[in-house]
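Q: Could you predict the 3D structure of Acyl-CoA dehydrogenase family member 11?
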Amino acid sequence: MASSTSMANNPAFARIPPWVKAKLRPIAIEKIQQVHDWVETECIPAERIYKAQLGANRWSTPAIIHELRKKAKAQGIWNLFLPNHFVESPGLTNLEYSCCAEIMGRVYWAAQTMNCHAPETGNIELLAKYCTPEQKKRWLYPLMNGDMSSAYSMTEPDVASSDATQIGIKMEITDKEVIINGRKLYGNCQYNEEMQLFILMGCSDPNNPNAWNRHTTLVVPAKTKGLKQVRNLTIMGYDWAPEGHGEYIYEDVRVPIENIILGPGRAFEIAQGRLGPGRIHHCMRLIGQAERAYELALVRCIDPRKKPRGKLIGEFDSNIERIADMRMTIDGMRLVVLNAADTMDLQGNKAGRYAIAQSKIMVPNALLKVIDEAMQMYGGQGLTQHTPLPELWTYARFVRVADGPDSAHRHQVGRDQMKTAPAFRKRAEEYTNRYKELCKKWGLEAEEFWGIV
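A: Sure. Here are the predicted structure tokens for Acyl-CoA dehydrogenase family member 11:
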């Protein structure tokens, strides 16, 4: 049980709902406080240092990140995302970690300083869940230690990858190796020397009558012969260096058969195990981005230099209402994410897929509105590098597509909900039958309700 005294009037816990505070254990309270202090004192003040160092070398991780990663590891705020049912976990639940992740989201790269960034969180959880002890030694532990970074390679340019059964990069499995040919999009850039492995999903058994058993997941070292990066893909004009988003060609790329994860034909089992946590981690961090945009809007509201028609921006009724809408939207976003995290803890990732999809659909869309309102309050400056708002907005828009577009998640939710329709129809019929019985009892003539059974 959490200590109410330790959280009273503490900014690290100011936005956490009471029902969540009641579930926080002492270890979580300690980590949330540490992460809050870390982001506020180490990350936000260093944003412009990061930009300056990145400008000097676009595809090398800035030196300040390396320094902060060493300090964060020494302080024990490292790999916090891995849930406590893994032996490699630092001990937090998904719900407890979500409180940390929100704070990390206040700075785009803050999570990286704690080894809690995408795609590392999803990849590490995948490797921890599905790899053999030998595979963990080769790939999981170096990633957890921060010795290298990784990419998840699923999307393709020639098919509708939102229907992952269409993924077609060819994998020929022999008795000793896997030979790969095809194209991929979005895996992190080879330009950054720290990116050393791809977790690749491809088609190894195209004639299998079960479309869900045609694909295999394996690890491809980034420097493997025949693997070529064509270019970096800009996302709405940003190159997102130093990680980026590469476009790749695989030409007779050969990797040992030992690099297959879990076994041939089991890629969909792995993908579902990975994408749930990956999606929710994005949403957790987006709450922090929303809070940052909201705070910037408040700062603008009371800027004494900005007085159109002699009034502070925050004195106009339209902006007072704008602030109210932003505040309530963010609080609603948080409840959706926290519910998903708690559901995952209590019922597992599979049972929590509705709550995860709900977060993935609703949160990025709501964040876009919050940031857009903040931009409006900043006027022309809100569209420039004078604030982090344009990059926050672009990242939120990207997340609407990352790990699957909105429409794919809505379709899944809708299909699941349609399965409940027969039970509701049966209930409606029971209402009608009972109504007719009551009409007879009270001597009334039953009416027909068109469209209602």
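Q: Anything worth pointing out?
A: The radius of gyration is 25 Å.
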